[in-house]
Amino acid sequence: MWPLYAAGFTTAFGAHGIAANLGAGSADAVTSLLVLGGLLALYDGAEVVLKPLFGTIADRIGARPVLLGGLVAFAVASALYALADSPGRLWAARLGQGAAASAFSPAASALVARLNPAAKQGRAFGSYGFYKSVGYTLGPLLGGVLVWAGGLRLLFTVLAVLGAAVAVWALIAVPVVPPLPRARQTLLDLARRLADPVFLVPTAALAGATAALSVGVGFLPVSGKVAGLGTVATGAAVSVLAACAAVVQPRAGRALDAGRITVRGGLSAGLLLAAAGLGCAMLPGLAGVLLGAALIGVGTGLITPLGFAALAASTPRERLGQTMGAAELGRELGDAGGPLLVAGVAAAATLTYGYGVLAVLLACGPVLAVGLLRSRR
To answer: What SS3 state is found at 144?
Structure first.
């Protein structure tokens, strides 16, 4: 399992470490905010398009080859810019990293499910989510240190070495998990499975959690600045959010396996906690920012392992890659949609109203989930 945790850390560290330092690390390549936005969108855009595809491929040929190939491709893409500094290489490296992460991220999730019995799915996904959260937390900090010490090329060099090292580790330690026989599936069968509330409810909860997390990371510093707080205080607030998410995930997974919480109850509580966090973010001053960060972190940390464990438990094992890829797509849409929604409302009114609109949508999630599950029954 440890190489799979390392793969989760790699994709998170690579995504946030570079994203947080692109603007300051390469003045020659990032010549405007439009260019910066394009480079940031390139990584996520590749994931949105390719994750379901690579998830399906993992079901067909096995998740381990897709995991290894994705990690090697990530190392090669990172080395592309590390070897020579040019705008064209930066764009190519960023696109290559996003495509590679689209391969090894759903493959790692599928292997987490395949290598653990149903009674330990919550703990396994809780640990996997913990190390991804550590990557999200340390990415901007360590990435900033590396860029300060040696420029953006040093950060890409470290990512190339990290990707190659995790690939070798996975080659040695992760066992061969052969693909399972699959019944023929038509596009209609796939549409029915993805429209089933058993898939839709946890995926929608994961998307909502990711939306709240993205909004918290992106907009809480803005609220702090408006309240007169310095960069240290606002940075600490974001760290509180990430730390709470990291600490809660393994505990939530263990509680699910032990039967102390249910998937429905845990997802509902997580959405309500995240909504409460956004409500606290509407309050002025440091208290609102810190309370908002803590509650959003706890809510997302509760939802993430339970959502993936529910998907793994309800999916035929021969279709795990496809399901994980589709669920990751849902998360990416939440990652992009949450900030866009809040920004759109803030542009028309204020940021406080933006927080409020997303909070209401998340709070309505448990009610909609109950309605969908009842209609299925």
So the answer is: helix
User: Quick one: which of 77, 66, 147, 74 has its CA closest to 109?
Assistant: 66
- Cα–Cα dist 282/64, whole Å: 45
Residue 117 backbone class (left: φ over 0; alpha: ψ -120 to 50; beta: rest) = beta
Cβ neighbors of 90 (< 8 A, separation 6 or more) are 26, 29, 39, 81, 152
Enumerate long-range contacts of 150-154, CB under 8 Å, 24 or more apart: 151/25, 151/26, 151/85, 152/18, 152/21, 152/22, 152/25, 152/26, 152/81, 152/85, 152/90, 153/81, 153/82, 153/85, 154/82
| DSSP symbol at 181 | P
**Angle between the 87-114 and 320-348 helix axes, to the nearest 10 degrees?**
130
* Cβ neighbours of residue 110 closer than 8 Å, sequence gap 6 or more: 55, 58, 59, 63, 320, 321, 324
Torsion of CA 324, 326, 331, 333, to 10 degrees: 170
- How many CB atoms sit inside 10 A of residue 338's CB? 27
Element (H, E) at 182: none
CA angle 90, 66, 172 (to 5 degrees): 105
The tens place of each residue's pLDDT in the chain, 377 residues long, gives: 899 999 999 988 888 778 767 765 555 655 665 666 667 667 777 877 788 888 888 888 888 999 999 999 999 999 998 887 787 888 888 889 989 998 888 889 889 888 888 778 888 888 888 888 888 777 777 887 888 888 888 989 999 999 999 999 999 999 988 876 555 555 555 556 666 777 788 888 888 998 888 888 778 877 887 777 776 666 677 778 888 888 898 899 889 888 888 888 899 999 999 999 999 989 888 888 889 989 999 999 999 889 888 888 877 777 777 777 777 777 878 877 888 888 888 888 888 898 999 999 999 877 776 565 565 55
pTM, full prediction: 0.76
